[in-house]
Amino acid sequence: MAEHLVIYTVVHQPRRLKLPAQPIPRGAVPRDIERCLFDERMNRRYFEKVARTCYRPASDLFLELADRGLKVCIGFSISFLRQAEMWDEDLLARFRRLVQHPNVELINVEPYHSFLFYVDIDAFWRRMRQAADYVRRLFGLRRAPVVTDTTEMFMSNDIYFALVRAGFRGAFMDGRPWVMGWRQPSYLYHYTKDLYLLTRHYRLSDDVGYRFSNRSWALWPLFADTYARWLAEAEGDLVTIGWDFETFGEHHWKETGIFEFMRALPGELQRRGVRPLLASEAIEQLGPRSHHLPLPAFPTTWAGEGGVEFFLGNPAQQAIFQLMHHVYHKALLTRDPAIIDLAMWLLQSDNLHLIQWFGRFGSEAEVSAYFTPREWWQLGPFGIIHELQQVYRNFLAAMDASLTGEVRYLPGEGPTPVRRSVSRPELPAVAAGMALPTGTDGRHEVAAAGGAPHGPAVAPPSPPRTRPTRRR
Amino acid sequence: MSLTDSRPANGQTTRLSPERTEFVLLSFEGPDPYSRAGGLGVRVSQLAQSLARLGYRTHLIFVGSPERPGYEEQEGGLLRLYRWCQWISRYYPQGVYEGENEKLYDFNETVPDFVADRLAPPAVRSGRVLVVLAEEWHTAHTICEVSDRLWMAGLRHHALLLWNANNTMGFERINWGRLGYVTTLTTVSRYMKHVMWGRGVNPLVIPNGIAPEALAPVNPRQVSALRRGLESGGGRLLLVKVGRFDPDKRWLMALEAVAQLKAMGRAPRLVMRGGIEPHEYEVLGRAQALGLSVMPVHAEGEMTATRLADVLASHPTVDVFNLKFFVPDGLLRALYRAADAVLANSGIEPFGLVGLEVMGAGGVAVTGSTGEDYAIAYHNAMVIETDDAREIAHGVARLQDDPGLGERLRRNGQETAARFVWPRVIEGMLDKLDFAAQLQGVRWPPAPAVEAEGPGRAREAAAAAEEAW
Q: Closest approach of chain A CAs to the CA of B174, in angstroms?
């Protein structure tokens, strides 16, 4: 029976690209390149919608639960925090109150929600360290987070050691059977004793995150007493639950009873002797009796079926992935921190997540299509793929000016434009001159959408039958 | 749908009075030198100015110079200029169509919200119908989006949306079904109307206009100076050609005519001013092939008629003077008037504003025979009907040999031009717009409630609405 429970939830909003791709003026300065790459109006629209349905009521909910003694871990992508700073300072203040609550632990998150770990592992661990310092300052905490999440909870052997180098004591990873083997996820694990692993119980997590409002699920409706019983009956001594924060009010609308469910949960847990812990407390208490877990070479993730194929499983995703490499490597050549910063944003995993549906059928494709901005669908499936690639191509071409010295700065403008927001602490740029990874030699041309072996299989989406677990 | 009587009860001839109507013009080109590449810039500038002078509040949104203010008021605040895409134009200093795709994207993305959110609500609150007139293919998508945004804001029925074609460029990029559904289409000549039939639409014809200033007498001293310069340089025929370097303008035909006149011993000099289009290189290549000597003329400081005359006089071996500077209106009109003929010999001309301007300046226009509804052969212009340069050479030689013919064309041309000044064109235009408003089911918003209580209160209400804007 599991006596301990760690609840982790992560807040994220992608920085969506502007589609159709906006042509970038020749010689554009980074600030103007940026406005061509990202659809901030759309981002704001979605942000405000989710703030209304989820962030505000759910942050109130968790504050209430924390007051009642429930311990919760929460992480924020900087992609989200940046939007909150720009468009809803009040919401940020609510989250600040939540994070400063003694029953809440701030978890570090990969700042750009990116695939940087695939492209440049050295930059990855530095950014993870910087992100921890950044959120500590932003939320006014005395110490930086010691436990971390990664993009989409990716974990592999090399990522593990990068996190060790970044100085974290613990990390979340998804406890999929193909990684766990004969082991149960409901224990605390380690690979070396430098970094403990909180393995998410994906089935119990998805009972709420994925299936809660699915009326065709045999176990619907799910009530707090039932769920608490499942948690208590789990084999092991620690159940780790991981959810999108958007589960509460966005993936599952408030009409589904998700808020009432959560309000009832602490009492039901207490009745069954399940004690919620903060992640660092779990490490403190259970670390001495943690178990060894071999780590896979291929990473595991909490998305899809738990492997990287959710992000790189179709030709359109593979083409974007190649383009991610190209834009990042070229950005490094410019040695311009503002350009490198833009390239980091283009590494967002969401740009792969949103086109998982290409050539696919089934519930995962439905989830992916659900998260594809509905405004994009007027382009048609091929149009989306083409324009998405075009954003990268445009950026690649725009960087020419940085390498040929033809960027047309206005008088007074420096090569590193001042960030728009001055209220948040700066996330330091990657140091120029870092070791460059071996690049591609150009033989693998990007698969043109029209030439992809499989056509788009998913039609423009209607809301999926079940509310998905992945975030909008 | 049956039409109701559109005449207002108060004796006015149109419901589109300045008190109840506000215009928004959407155009890539505009009044800035940066924004002028062809006739469109002239058209919208003069139309906007004329509407404002007739008392209409008029907003002109155009791709303006990056060096000028983003927003500017003229005509006592009635004419409001919005220089769009300036952040892009700073990268493209050559003119309005440099970086066209970049500007197009930005224009389409941002103008609809601006019109629907910033211009329409205060106009409607003030009891005015918003008339949005979009020009050319660049704005075709924009106006469709404007329509959608107005629908979403519940204001579409208080707006009259029009889209005007000044030429056929970009027709292949237009979604005609959508455009024809959300707007009333207009064009500038019967020729264009026929062309557009082929696209499954039937536009209303509203002719182009010219500014009243286009009829003002040309400074005779400038004309004399130019003629003296021509003759001092050994020339006997002054020909002028102005327009974009576009094959439709038949630059090659004009050069061949010059070469023929030269071969005939008539000592022609061609003063030409084109745009930044690459066809220029083909034009210059043809001039070279024809044995014509071409000289680019750059302005150092302000170029005046006297200075240009000096250029003509001091280069007797030059056949073609290729002006590489923005030609101010005064000098341009002096050139029109001083020339023996102005070669507006386009093969395809939707309207031919240059021909009309030449007539206004008292010049002799050599026009093509497509959209130039105003041109009548041997009455007010020489009208070219073939693409054979000999036809131009023949006509110009005739003008040189028969000064009386030239005088008659100049006189009749000026009379014709007087019928096309903007106030007179707008008079007819308003009537057509009134009809279009009925077709679109436009409803006039209620006038501010205080209006009935007296003009003083009405002014207060207008001021409040103004402030809200």
A: 16
Say how many Å lie between the first and final Cα of chain B, rounded. 35
Note the pLDDT tens digit of each residue in A156-208: 999 999 999 999 999 999 999 999 999 999 999 999 999 999 999 999 999 99
Residue ranges of domains in chain B, CATH in brackets: 21-209+421-468 (3.40.50.2000), 213-418 (3.40.50.2000)
Distance (Å) from the C-alpha of residue B92 to the closest C-alpha of chain A? 8
Asked if B88 and A25 come within 8 Å (Cβ–Cβ), the reply is yes
Give B80's strand partners: B59, B73
Among chain B residues, CA nearest to A394 = B102
Predicted TM-score (pTM) of this structure: 0.82
Burial A330-343 (b: 16+ CB within 10 A, else e): bbbebebbbbbbbb
**Cβ of A355: how many Cβ atoms within 10 Å?**
27
The closest CB to that of B102, out of A20, A25, A408, belongs to A25
Give the chain A residue whose CA is nearest to the CA of B88: A25
Question: Structural domain boundaries of chain A?
Answer: 4-25+37-292, 309-451
CB contact under 8 A, B101 and A23: yes
Chain A residues in contact with B105 by the CB 8 A cut-off are: 20, 22-23
Minimal CA separation from B85 to chain A, in Å: 11
- For residue B331, the Cα-to-chain-centroid distance in whole angstroms is 18
Q: How far is CA A66 from the centre of its chain?
A: 24
Using CA atoms, how far residue B38 sits from A351, B96, B327, in Å, is 43, 10, 13
Catalytic residue among A34, A152, A364, A387: A152
CA B176, B182, B183, B184 torsion: positive or negative?
Answer: positive
Q: What is the ipTM of this complex?
A: 0.80
Give yes or no: A281 in active site: no
CA–CA separation, A143 vs A136, rounded Å? 6
Is the domain A4-25+37-292 a CATH 3.20.110.20 member? yes
Residue A173: closest CA among A192, A191, A190, A154: A154
Q: How high is the mean pLDDT in each 10-residue block of chain B (469 residues)?
A: 48 79 98 89 94 97 97 97 97 95 97 98 97 98 98 97 94 96 97 95 94 94 97 96 94 98 97 94 97 94 92 96 93 98 96 94 97 96 97 97 96 97 95 95 84 47 43
